[in-house]
Amino acid sequence: MSIRIDRRKFLMGSSALAMAGAVGVMPSWAQAQSLRLTFWGGQARADRTYGATDLYTAAKGTAVEGEFLAWNDYWPKLATQTAGGNAPDIIQMDYRYIVEYAKRNAIAPLDEFVGGALKLDDFDADQLEGGKVDGKLYGISLGANSVATLYNASAFEEAGIEAPTNAWTLDDLMAIGEAFKAANIRGGMKAIQDGSYSEPMLDNWLRQRGKALYTADGKLGFEEADAVEWYQLWSTMRDAGVCVSAEDQALDTGPLETTMVVQGKAAMMPSNSNQLVGFQAIVQDKLNMVGYPRIAAGVGGGHYRKPSMFFSVGGSSANKEAAADFLNFFISDPEAVKILGVERGIPCSAATRDIVAPTLDETNQIALNFVANLGDLLGPLPPSPPAAAGEISESLLRTLGQEVGFGAKSPEQAGADLVAGANDILSRA
Length: 429
Prior knowledge:
The chain is α+β, with helices and mostly antiparallel strands and 429 residues long. The protein has two domains: 3-145 and 307-372, 3-Layer(aba) Sandwich (D-Maltodextrin-Binding Protein, domain 2); 147-305 and 381-428, D-Maltodextrin-Binding Protein, domain 2 (3-Layer(aba) Sandwich). Helices cover 43% and strands 13% of the residues. The strands form four sheets. Strands 1-3-2-4-14-7 form a six-stranded mixed beta sheet. Strands 10-11-9-12 form a four-stranded mixed beta sheet. Helix 18 runs antiparallel to helix 19.
């Protein structure tokens, strides 16, 4: 989905024109400017984002032109804009891409604005650290989140199956899958969507085994035998009817609306804690979340508090200070943060959390409590992924998962190809 909001539409219905007349209370760089903003997400995120942006326009007299796209469409378009020197002023950035964009000067360091346009005195240290590349600050975390298993609580209740808890294991997942097959609800709903080409799920599985996707120096943190076992695990679940078929999984093209839970083909799917709000907005059934399954009872440490996403400033922006001022407003203005809630994750400053917490509805409270109560599932934040990690995730891992699912490759072939292909991508980068 791509929706471009015309500047005048942002100004309509607001007090922007009146505020723009109050020249004496605005810094010179904030007057008569227009900022361009781009982000990925669904309509629920867009509504919240544009609500906060309207407040900024009214307060500062600076118009904002916003655009949002689905995840799979976002990165190719951003890469094209960046290569053409036409990148937006404010860019929603992901942890897996921030190193690549920083090293190519596609986003700008923000250190010169800290203490001025950017007030970060009570910002969580781990979230600040997550936005740094080579010691410089390139991204402001918009929320802390964690990977999660999103599940349809109504479907579990309908099938008469006990919902999982944070203590559940891969063996429990297999048992739940068999129970859903026996219940045969909603035309044969499976227990879970195919996670074989989910980078976060692979990452979590490796971390529980004492390994990692990537090392601190940007190399692969696992071996071919690990990759083979990963594909064998999902082939077993696919053959057993625990996860959806390859044909059904291929329908998931990126937007929330195409995912297996929304389509009613699976009761569970790998997700992120902040996405519960967006999913619940488009699903009538009651949704909830738990951690990813443990590889064995008592094994934890696979999860971590990740910056859900960042706002960065475009390296080619002519309005960097104004963009930094917008970032500061977005993360700290009391009315803006109430609108934003925890849809992008748990706010990263104590003052903002205190403002938001009393305003949250049940769905948002679930997301907040999940991240706050990970317990022994929680491990350390890994280093930022190396440049080109996105190509491995969005192209190589996805393609190999589909090839195994459709029987074009065996788990053994896919495991070898994943390691060889990833090493080739990393070496080229």
